[in-house]
Write a structure and sequence with these properties.
Layout lengths: L2 E7 L14 H17 L4 H6 L3 E3 L2 E8 L8 E11 L3 E10 L2 E11 L1 E4 L2 E7 L4 H8 L2
Antiparallel strand pairs: 1-4, 2-7, 3-6, 4-5, 5-6, 7-8
Pfam family, one: 4HBT_2
InterPro entries: 4-hydroxybenzoyl-CoA_TE, HotDog_dom_sf
GO molecular function: fatty acyl-CoA hydrolase activity
Length: 139
């Protein structure tokens, strides 16, 4: 399974008045982590558009389990991987570590989306290209 790890320092603007990360900020970090996962795997956003004709990879479901809070100045490690791939949808998992401890588990369901060939004004799910499946799953 292809995994990307990135270090993130918690910034002042990430925190609420209690000096802990305001939970929606983690979802922005997860979105960045998913984009970075694709980039590091060799599938830049430009490739998604030019090579595969995709418009994007929108999120259709998300949730998280919070175990340990983080505060301004803390460093966290976000490990991101694709857990499963269907025809056009896929499940992303983000494990957030504070030191060695698991601080958060984040989950996303996303879909590859392109223009509908029958009506280019509409969007339509697109199948996962085989080379992407191979890279992310090792199959």
């Amino acid at each position: 399974m292809f995994v990307n790890r990135r270090e993130v320092q918690i910034q002042w603007g990430d925190c609420d008045p209690a000096n802990i990360v305001y939970y929606p900020r983690y979802f922005a970090m997860f979105d960045d982590s998913t984009s970075t996962l694709f980039e590091v795997a060799g599938f830049s956003k430009q490739d998604l558009v030019r090579k595969y004709g995709l418009v994007g990879i929108p999120m259709v479901d998300t949730r998280a389990k919070f175990y340990i809070p983080s505060t301004y100045g803390d460093w966290i490690t976000i490990e991101t991987r694709i857990e499963s791939i269907k025809r056009s949808s896929f499940e992303v998992k983000h494990d957030v570590y504070k030191g060695e401890a698991l601080a958060i588990e984040g989950f996303e369901t996303r879909v590859l989306v392109g223009r509908d060939p029958a009506n280019p004004d509409k969007l339509k799910s697109a199948p996962f290209p085989p080379e992407m499946v191979a890279k992310f799953t090792g199959r």
